[in-house]
Amino acid sequence: MQECVKVALDAMGGDNAPSEIIRGAIDAVHMRQDIQVILVGQQDVIQKELSQYAYDEKQILIRQASEIIETAEQPVMAIRRKKDSSIVVGMNMVRQGEADAFVSAGSSGAVLVGGQVIVGRIKGIERPPLAPLIPTEKGVSLLIDCGANVDARASHLVQFAQMGSIYMEHVVGIRNPRVAIVNIGAEEEKGNALVKETFPLLKECSGINFVGSIEARDIPQGAADVIVCEAFVGNVILKLYEGLSSTLIGVIKKGLTSTLKSKIGAALALPALKNTIKSFDASEYGGAPLLGLNGLVVKIHGSSKAKEVKNAVIQCVTFKEQNINEKIKSNIITTEK
Amino acid sequence: MQECVKVALDAMGGDNAPSEIIRGAIDAVHMRQDIQVILVGQQDVIQKELSQYAYDEKQILIRQASEIIETAEQPVMAIRRKKDSSIVVGMNMVRQGEADAFVSAGSSGAVLVGGQVIVGRIKGIERPPLAPLIPTEKGVSLLIDCGANVDARASHLVQFAQMGSIYMEHVVGIRNPRVAIVNIGAEEEKGNALVKETFPLLKECSGINFVGSIEARDIPQGAADVIVCEAFVGNVILKLYEGLSSTLIGVIKKGLTSTLKSKIGAALALPALKNTIKSFDASEYGGAPLLGLNGLVVKIHGSSKAKEVKNAVIQCVTFKEQNINEKIKSNIITTEK
């Protein structure tokens, strides 16, 4: 057996755990021989689910973890107290080099806190950003940061720009990715205090292709590949993307069935429409990496199904093959004192 | 002739000036007898446009203003230097009581600066927010602030909540409007420093129906009537609303014509679909008032057509009839020292 990428997978996290998580793991190992998935969670529950499938036993292992961190729990306390939770056990595997990556659909807060506290930051990285891919007219863009780092400083945003560029270039395969900062106007003098301070730093920053400000209205058109922003703003963008897409699709479906003529039309048009709409569903793009850690941590949507789980697991292979963390270590400007 | 509401209208501002602006004025006075529109701008240009229409000459007047502030101009400088611009002349009419309101599709920056500098704030109002209506599944919500007040303080946001409530209740007609603050989670302890500081102040604030935090994903569902946020975040929400709606509609149209079957379906369904989509177009809701000024200033979208101009002019009547500024004066908590 060739050298494997070892992915610890939180079997207990998310709305569809454990069944969809485990099905995703099975799909991933069926797809690639060079992945080993270690399912982290309650052994008996996992074993029962696994018994439905045929798979290569060298590719799927189980690591017992008796506790589960619930979404409603306060993240810092949960990470501290639930030492035998699937999140803490999985993160510790990454820390100790037993796994290359940890993937979880569980509590976002706990994943963010655990990443920093257990897996730990790469030396020189001030804050690890959460960076989901969002759909655009032209493909996908990386929205960085959507994590817990609210009230970020300018130096953080510069590192986000650098890490985001490395990720988009080497994992997603966009050459010389365009980096832009979210702003309320195109001109350099526009913005709040943070953006005004960050803008000149990004202009001077070597090794990134900084194209200036991006207004939120241009994000869905794919006007930049790496969209840099502070986490509060990033969270608003990500959540509004999800909310507005799903509301609009609902409104459109209602509109399509509002007259008899349109009902007939809708019956004919819906299959094609569904495919298009799916390509614009942010949750389709699965895994958001928490960048800048000593290992890879990937947060997937709480509502993830097998497909997203599989995609996130496979994404870990590219991340390792491309030595992303080595690239981050050797390319990031550090201003930490 | 009964007592009129006098609306100064910037005839030179916006992408479709002067023709659509003037057509909007004509439509407004045809609709209501109790409006007088004073078109502000270059007399000869306005006169030429007006000559196409029949109207009651007591209802449409012209006020000469030779200059035009361009969108690209730096707002503070433009307001200071172009004393004979349509924006400065129109604002001065409100200041001097010659007009009840000023409506402009011109430079947002100049309208915001002019509102503060020329028309002036109501005593006790710390910052005048720009408050557009955005479409939701259930109707409309007021997004307050989308203006130039970036890096706001908690006391500003409390006043936005109060002014927004008054506006939604008395101009839009929503009883006991639900006020929420934009946040990155539903719990009180979530948020950035500004939100954490503002949340308890809103909870204690009498005279508003504060329902807590709202995540961006719940805005399109109409989960609150008054959506309070700092201007940078508000601008991102508004612009993403516009951008995502128009991109999604483009993507959907493409999807509808991707197969022969769907093309036939689309031909039948499109008329109904267009109506639905239109109801979700943020620019349809026209005028965004700049609240808390000694008079009313309404900013309309740069791309406004006659319909939006007409709606914004008519909105000024309700604003005056309901004595919104008197209500603001007597209801706002001031913390100004």
Oligomer: homodimer
- What can be said about the biggest beta sheet of chain A? 6 strands, mixed
Write down the overall geometry of chain A.
Answer: globular
Radius of gyration of chain A: 21 Å
| Adjacency order of strands in the biggest sheet of chain A | 3-2-1-4-11-10
Structural class by secondary-structure content of chain A: alpha/beta
- The averaged pLDDT of chain A comes out at 90
- What's the β-strand tally of chain A? 11
Termini of chain A, distance in Å?
45 Å
Low-pLDDT parts of chain A are none
Q: Largest chain-chain contact?
A: A-B, 61 and 61 residues
Helical content of chain A (DSSP H or I, runs of 4+): 40-55%
SSE order of chain A in H/E notation? EHEHEHHEHEEHEHEEHHEEHH
Q: Strand portion of chain A, in percent?
A: 15-25%
- Enumerate how many helices of chain A there are, as a single number: 11
Task: Walk me through this protein's architecture.
The structure is a homodimer of 337-residue chains. The first copy, chain A, is α/β, with parallel strands linked by helices and 337 residues long. Chain A is 45% helix and 16% strand. Chain A has 11 helices and 11 strands. A 6-stranded mixed sheet of chain A has the order 3-2-1-4-11-10, sandwiched between helices. A 5-stranded mixed sheet of chain A has the order 5-6-9-7-8, sandwiched between helices. In chain A, strand 7, helix 7 (193-204) and strand 8 form a beta-alpha-beta unit. The radius of gyration of chain A is 21 Å and the shape is globular.
